């Protein structure tokens, strides 16, 4: 593929060329390839059809996970988050040892300890990874979803972006059933703190234990704000915010 250099950016198809916009800018590629009918019916393309089927399942699982996280995801994500997640979930799907090729699913892969380990620690905003921003020990009770950050000193234990005056913490406890496509998400109240050297203990308690069964997900959201005339404003639309899948059971 090639990049459009002209000041006039075109979108659409013209003379066998397809012009489109992506996160990498305005691009152009040639139109063509094997017809859909041949791919779906020709025995020579059986491997391709298997790949399409598995890709579709992975895409559905990724969408389900994003929907389960809900509004927290809008607060901390990078432009390539969905494609990065697809890459991880594809590896999880490949751990399905009970299904034939073309029928492997994320729900089977995530049931393995290796599958959980692949997804654990996923940063939804790669511009602000948890380990790079947050330097305080914390405890997670996976039975209740309660996260405790004892003796937390903001200026000592955070990588703070320029201009920030406050930080907030919030957690999510999710029961996600990849097989049935259902989930229940319970959030903790937001805990907001001024960025200073005072020590405090932060406790994030979900309002309830999520119902249902499946895979348990525990997420931590860290947001930075700047206070102006008594009001707190997000910094650069959340570019410095952290959202991390801290554990999966």
Question: Which key terms come to mind for this protein?
Answer:
4-stranded antiparallel beta sheet, 8 helices, 249 residues, alpha+beta, 6-stranded antiparallel beta sheet, 3 domains
Please tell me about this protein's structure.
This protein is of the alpha+beta class and 249 residues long. The protein has three domains: 1-32, no CATH class; 43-119, no CATH class; 130-248. 27% of the residues lie in helices and 32% in strands. The chain has eight helices and 13 strands. The strands form three sheets. Strands 7, 8, 9, 11, 12 and 13 form a six-stranded antiparallel beta sheet that branches. Strand 7 and strand 8 (182-187) form a beta hairpin. The radius of gyration is 22 Å and the shape is globular. The model has no long low-confidence stretch (mean pLDDT 86).
